[in-house]
Amino acid sequence: MIRIVTYFLCLVVLLTACKKKKSDNPYDDWEDGTKTPVVADKSVDPNTIQGLHKNIFKPTCSNSGCHDGNFEPDFRSIESSYNSLVNRMSTNTDPAKPEFSKRVVPGSAATSMILHRILEFIPGTQGKMPLLTDPGSDWPAKKNEYIQNITQWINDGAKDQFGKSPSSIDFIPQLAGLIVFADASSTPLPHSGYNPVQIPPGTGTLKIMIAYSDDKTPVNQFGTSTINFSLNPNSYDSTVLNLVTESSATIGKGILGTDINYCHSIIIPVSDLGVANDVIWVRTETTDNVNGNVFIPSTTTSFNFKKYFAIKIN
Ligand code: HEM
Fold it and tell me: 210-250, pLDDT tens digit by residue?
């Protein structure tokens, strides 16, 4: 008897639980109202980021193999264009014109790299932009008008598609390079890839130079900067030495292989650093006088960068 009652109860539960609850379909009451005509080619203000994207970045810059996500700036969408231009550091700088350190400087078309890349050929780069134009492109005919639109947008503050000005971001200083001169030589020792600088046997003294980059503060106006050496890339003791801020910059290859300015240095005997076969890891601390002190490289810096920021005594 108990068994029959149990089966019966189970059956009741099953039937009620499986009953499909009718959900409201929002389209039940939908009526095929009057459609507003699709505006095929809605006019967009050419001096806005969405106008620049429609007229220039999408048709002329993001073509296949170019700025289509392969590298920055990424001109595929309005958002990717905006985020890879405004306040972003240039990958390829112009040693002759260090003021072009950023792709777009809100309010200053005169120091924005994007226009510099369109108007000038920079030695060591692949050429003036666009490197080539597709057949039928209106760039050749409208180039001056488009340059004017880009200039206007930047000088109006490089607003985003919602008309919002970029908040005044101030990035912390970045690692840009390390070069080493042995025994007062005027030529730096080779430094290739993400590897320590090899110190030739018998070298007495080193001049170590550090390059930083910063979005706002000129590097030679940084605050007190110090350097620290260790045999362990993840642990540094407290003995720090002051870096000298050079009165004039030394130009040398940076971590990206391009010529950059070196403004900070220290001269130190090899014997103070270690003995043969030691790998000496380097850490510096500096400030752009806006963001607090930062360690470069920091504990979270990739190991490749830490390897680049090291010296091997042979
Ligand atoms: C008007 C359209 C274009 C604009 C506004 C433009 C803008 C730029 C900018 C600002 C840079 C420098 C990025 C940096 O160093 O931070 C750059 C680099 C580059 N662009 Fe373009 N570009 C355009 C069209 C093209 C096209 C059509 C191609 C390919 C055929 C191309 C290929 C490259 C390459 C390979 C680089 C990196 C190498 C170098 O710096 O020379 N670009 N472009």
Answer: 999 888 888 989 999 999 999 999 898 878 999 999 988 89
Q: How far is the CA of 176 from the centre of ligand 1 (A)?
A: 21
Degrees to nearest 5, angle at CA 108 with 294 and 74: 70
| Domain match, 182 and 307 both | yes
Question: End of a domain among 168, 183, 216?
Answer: 168
Q: Which of 143, 168, 193 is the last residue of a domain?
A: 168
The pLDDT tens digits for 104-131 are: 999 999 999 999 999 999 888 889 999 9
The CA distances from residue 58 to 69, 77, 98, 288, in Å, are 12, 7, 29, 36
Whether 183 and 309 map to the same domain: the answer is: yes
Q: What global pTM score does this model have?
A: 0.60
**Can you tell me the distance from the alpha carbon of 9 to that of 178, in angstroms, rounded to the nearest whole number?**
79
Ligand 1 atom closest to Cα of 122?
41
Instruction: Give 57's contacts (C-beta < 8 A, 6+ positions apart).
Output: 67, 75, 81
Atom of ligand 1 nearest to the CA of 139: 1
d(CA 264, CA 250): 9
